[in-house]
Amino acid sequence: MRISPMLAFAADNSKHNVAATKALIVAACALMMTPPALSQVNPDKYRQPAMPANLPDPLVFADGTRVAAQADWPKRRKELLDLFTDQMYGRMPERPAQMRFNVYNLDRHALGGKATREQISILFLGKEDGPRMDLLVYVPNQVKRPPVILGLNFWGNQTINPDQGIRVSDRWIESSGGSSIDLSCVKNNRATEACRGIDQGRWPVEKILDAGYALATAYRGDIDPDRNDGYDESIRSAWPELAQGGNNFSTIAAWAWAMSRALDYLEQDHLVDGRHVVAFGWSRLGKAAIWAGATDPRFVAVISNESGAGGAKVFHDVHGETVELLNTRFPYWFCKNFKQYNGRDAELPFDQNEVLALIAPRPIYIASAILDENADPQGEFLGALAVTPVYRFLGTTGLPATEWPSVDQPILGRVSYHVRRGVHSVTAFDWEEYLRFCEAYVKPGADLR
Ligand code: GCU
Q1: Range of the domain at 311
Q2: What is the pLDDT of residue 25?
Q3: What's the pLDDT band for 10 if we cut at 50, 70, 90?
Q4: Is the minimum distance from the CB of 374 to ligand 1 under 6 angstroms?
Q5: Active-site residues: which are they?
Q6: Which residue's CA is the closest to the ligand 1 atom numbered 7?
Q7: Beta-strand (E) ranges in 98-155?
Q8: Which end of the chain is more exposed for a tag (fewer CB within 10 A), N or C?
Q9: What is the pLDDT at residue 45?
């Protein structure tokens, strides 16, 4: 069934004032029997995606020659990886030789006996008082060595589930999550007991476990506090040499790097299948999940939930957040070299379809929400569409569609995509589809088409 744009509005239960006002206009006009033109409500929202004519082609080398054979792909892949490292995300450190894992909690009877809960401090430089990330892992007890979905969380491990056994974060936490979440439990920028489970709606732990997957997560603030003045509290400051130059170690790269360090742990954890770990992330953490998948081929798949600009959206589709807006509001997310592209979205010499190409031919799910204009749903769809030729070139399938689907009509494929009703968030609908995708493309023995 095709959901009409009007219905998509009505279905939006957003707390956003702007969206609510628009919905009211629609409702009022409906009562007066004079529906407004969609362009009156929002000129952009329901435009059909149009592939930008000058979108850079991942299958063409920098010198203009085409990638002729599959055997040449690793060379082009390396060229792209170096380009994006230099111009956008910045350099990353190697895995530190001194890194240690301190398992401080192992409970085989967590969540009413359903799961084993592990909590591990990843001591990046081997020192308790050095940079550290606390990883929380739930493993379903009914499955032997299950695949893992790994994703960073926004407000601390204790927010994903009311489970009393989760260590409450002692790190700096923002005190307002805008319209995303009520953070009144945060006192003086620290979490309190009242913060347990406050984001559980976005983390359906039991559903994920019941589907036969382990879930691993860590707080973004353990890695980088995500503030303009956050450098000294970020793990980035442990590598001052990487702060030099235009290709400096950025926050998005730091989050991606930390996901790889979590994967280092999972690879040697006998409770899970460390060779089947999916990188998941929402929004800015979706941008990080994509870069983690691009830089670390050990991730078997990527799930990008509304990653938007600097994620799955192609910048050449100049709608929603632009390079300049990203670089102005969050100047530390990408490296200094990226600033030179402010205002040049439509002429960028590279674009995000080429970052997605670094993940090919591994499965990827790109998801949008219709009211998430900042992320540019059409631009995210174009990312999925424009990476598909690379999947085909590598001998597999990409997105099995050419048209932007209706709201709430997922396209399941090796490149999967949906645009659901509602606002910027992670919903039960999203997870339902991610688990279907994992079943089809990630589970060992799945039909890897
Ligand atoms: C802001 C930002 C986005 C980002 C989002 C989020 O809205 O503009 O780029 O994805 O925050 O992380 O929630």
Answers
A1: 83-441
A2: 44
A3: very low
A4: yes
A5: 283, 424
A6: 374
A7: 100-110, 115-123, 132-140, 148-153
A8: N
A9: 65
- The total number of structural domains in the chain stands at 1
* Closest ligand 1 atom to 307 CA: 10
76 in any annotated domain: no
Whether 15 is covered by a domain: the verdict is no
What is residue 38's predicted lDDT score, i.e. its pLDDT?
40
* Rounded CA separation 143/131 (Å): 33
Q: What is the pLDDT of residue 279?
A: 99
Q: Computed from CA positions of residues 39, 41, 43, 45, in that sequence, does the dihedral angle turn out positive or negative?
A: negative
Say if ligand 1 is within 6 A of residue 304 CB: no
**CATH number of the domain enclosing 184:** 3.40.50.1820
Q: Tell me the sheet residues that pair with 419.
A: 368
Note whether 330 and 309 are within 8 A (CB): no
* Residue pLDDT, tens place only, 72-107: 999 999 999 999 999 999 999 999 999 999 999 999
From the CB of 421, is ligand 1 less than 6 Å away?
Answer: no
SS3 214: strand
- Cα(284) to ligand 1 centroid in Å equals 5
Q: Please indicate whether residue 251, judged by its CB atom, sits closer than 6 Å to ligand 1.
A: no
Q: Return the SS3 of 361.
A: coil
Assess whether the C-beta atom of 362 lies below 6 angstroms from ligand 1. Answer: no
Q: Facing residues of 302 across strands?
A: 279, 364
Give domain status of residue 34, yes or no.
no
pLDDT digits 0-9 by tens, 142-157: 999 999 999 999 999 9
What does the pLDDT look like over 246-302, one tens digit per residue? 999 999 999 999 999 999 999 999 999 999 999 999 999 999 999 999 999 999 999
Residue 121 lies in a domain: yes
Determine the atom of ligand 1 nearest the C-alpha atom of 424.
Answer: 13
The protein residue with its alpha carbon nearest to ligand 1, atom 12, reads 284
